[in-house]
Amino acid sequence: MQNKNSMLFRSGKNLLVYGLMFIMLSIAVDWYRKPSEPNAFAQQVFYDLQQQPKVIAQLSHQKPMLLYFWGSWCNYCKFTSPAVQQLMDDKVAVLSVALKSGDPQQVADYLNQENYHFPVINDPDGEISKSWDIQATPTILIIKDGKVVQHTTGLTSYWGLKVRLWLSSLT
Known about the structure:
This protein is an alpha/beta fold. It folds into 2 domains: 1-34; 41-170, Glutaredoxin (3-Layer(aba) Sandwich). 44% of the residues lie in helices and 21% in strands. The termini are far apart.
């Protein structure tokens, strides 16, 4: 019996150690890939695929919003985009940037095929993403009152984003 308890304790300890190592590695990778926001980005007017104006300062006023850089060619985005869509369905303000994913019609076709309805700014040449120094897709920035308060790169989940949004709303 004592041997079984000892084995359970060691397994739990190993799980905790490996979990903490994973979290620390994830934080280090996010720090390394940290985007840098362009000057006066919050006041810029962007136009989505439907030619509707989008201003980050307005979208992030009083509540955090997601700025989501993705690509139709990105394998990790195929797992992250449904979480972003679910947050959009939950009434979270979302603005996305389709990085080098084709012309506006190709991006619209991809969105229809995948049943995504979040607003998309097309970045066919990568100029917008370059101005943010985006190094990986997906990259998600959480912006509140026109200021970047959190960011993450790579694979993420609905609940991971939900917790980040909640923490951002506390500030």
